[in-house]
Design brief:
With about 70 residues, the protein is mainly β. The chain has one domain. The chain has a 3-stranded parallel sheet with strand order 1-2-3, with no helix packed on it. It is globular. The two termini are about 15 Å apart. The relative contact order is 0.32.
Length: about 70
């Protein structure tokens, strides 16, 4: 998942429904420079196996609501 949404500057909102993250180990830079992103709900993310999350939200200057 590393860099998956990197630079999606027009992205305002994402809803993850039935998104399986059980085997993900790298989420670094996942939302890097998503400058228009305002709301994220990651409460269903399973991060038990994740060992890299660096700069995951770096540059998300419009992020107002984050549910982890």
């Amino acid at each position: 998942m590393s860099h998956m949404f990197n630079g999606c500057s027009s992205l305002k909102e994402l809803k993850f429904v039935n998104f399986n993250t059980n085997n993900i180990i790298n989420m670094s830079n996942l939302f890097y420079k998503c400058t228009s992103l305002e709301e994220l709900d990651l409460s269903n993310f399973n991060t038990n196996n994740v060992n890299k999350m660096n700069s995951m939200f770096s540059g998300c200057s419009s992020l107002k609501k984050l549910n982890i």
